[in-house]
Amino acid sequence: MGVSKSDAIVIVGGGAFGLSTALHLSRKGYTNISVFEKDDHIPPRFSAANDLNKIVRAEYEDPFYTDLTIKAIAAWKTPLFAPHFHQTGFLHCVSGAAPKKAAETLQRFRASAERNPQMKLHVVPLEGVEDIRQAAWQLTGQLPGWYGYFNRFDGYAHSGNALAAVYRAAQAEGVRFFLGEQGAVDEIVYVSALTGRKCAGIRTKNGRFHPSALTVVAAGAGVGRLVPQLGTQVVAKSWSVAHVHLTDEETSALRGIPVTYARDLGFFFEPDPKTNLLKLCPMGGGYINTDPKTGVSHAPDTLQESAFLPEDDEKQLRKLLAQTLPTLADRPLVKKSLCWFADTNDSDFIVDYLPNMSSSIIVLSGDSGHGFKMFPIVGSFVTDLLEAPDDKQSVVRWRWKESDPDAGKGDWGGDVSWRLGESKELSAIMPPKASKL
Ligand SMILES: Cc1cc2nc3c(=O)[nH]c(=O)nc-3n(C[C@H](O)[C@H](O)[C@H](O)COP(=O)(O)OP(=O)(O)OC[C@H]3O[C@@H](n4cnc5c(N)ncnc54)[C@H](O)[C@@H]3O)c2cc1C
């Protein structure tokens, strides 16, 4: 690739992938880097990583991502990232009522953890309630039929704080940030080139053109609007999140609790000592917002349209609390929202040049709802690609794939081995007051 260390590089998106890319490029000696982010602050409210926490677990059904996460966890333990990484362990179970698919997925994850020489020393089987209470005494619920394993190698990261830390570090290294109106990218600008076309830069919503030798699009769930060539390779999908607001005493009592995850019910984290919020997420097949004309799902334009918790998710979260922390089961749920990510049908990322654009534009996307754990290293996937001979992505699974017209409209929820249930359309679950009608 012809990009020199002083050439202008534009990164679209100041979320997890964009910030990490800015940091890694800067550390490789690139000196002319600008990040464009449509929110007016970082962590951006549109980022899937803007909130309190994300699970950092290394066991994957696929050893490729296990190895990467082990690398990421080592990086989480370095000075910039360590304040935001909490190795509380991961209590990974199913309840007694879990469908067969959930139980089978759990077994595959457990086998992955037990197979790995670094992780297996940290894995404890949990045959029932007594074992679970040994690992997490604060779980006073009946845990009916629960079993699984506890992995002390894993934990969670405070995602909002980690984004803010990398933002400050990148700024200190000379990366420029354009936020809010100046940072909202309206379009990628292409010009004719010797072979086909190439990207010449971006135009922001306020009409300004910013030229670049290389553009990296790391726009999370917003990627489809900027790079429509992706088609159904990547669709915007969401899961809901909600919180319980605890007292100081309740937060203290739950200090050190592992990430607690029942595959059929959802998960929660150690409460945040600053806000006293305990975050809950029900997972599932997710919600999509399909444009009937193109068949591609996009995140809604406003945050208000996502500021609710679907009824069935609320029921599921209350069940999770009743079985684990019963004193919280009837508490009000606050800060409810749908959180949007960029989903691919094989859960693989996309880290590649747009075809036939003279290596002028890279798409870094397809996080598929499991990308935050890679935050300390994801930017190195871009610097590796810049150093690749012939500009060819050597990781075949991360290459640009031609859009599959048979892939449907991104409702592959039920086909993804690690998720339960089908994807639903946003229009079918929106509460009447949030509806556009
Ligand atoms: C509910 C939920 C739970 C999750 N749990 C986990 C977990 O436990 N562990 C884990 O590893 N991962 C988890 N993830 C996934 C993780 O959050 C994502 O992998 C990660 O945030 C992806 O980073 P990104 O930079 O691609 O996208 P984002 O972090 O979403 O950032 C994209 C940024 O691009 C900006 N943008 C978009 N369009 C434009 C534009 N036109 N102009 C300028 N800026 C633009 C947005 O404002 C946003 O800030 C979860 C995701 C969700 C939704």
UniProtKB/TrEMBL annotation:
Essential cofactor(s): FAD
UniProt key word Oxidoreductase: yes
Gene3D superfamilies: D-Amino Acid Oxidase, subunit A, domain 2, FAD/NAD(P)-binding domain
Keyword vocabulary terms for this entry: FAD, Flavoprotein, Oxidoreductase
Segments forming a coiled coil: none
TM stretches of this protein: none
Domain FAD dependent oxidoreductase: start-end pairs: 9-385
Cited InterPro entries: FAD-dep_OxRdtase, FAD/NAD-bd_sf, MTOX
SUPFAM superfamilies from the UniProt entry: FAD/NAD(P)-binding domain
Keyword Flavoprotein annotated: yes
Molecular function terms, GO-annotated: flavin adenine dinucleotide binding; saccharopine oxidase activity; sarcosine oxidase activity
Family as reported in the entry's similarity comment: Belongs to the MSOX/MTOX family.
PANTHER family: L-SACCHAROPINE OXIDASE, PEROXISOMAL SARCOSINE OXIDASE
Record's protein name: FAD dependent oxidoreductase
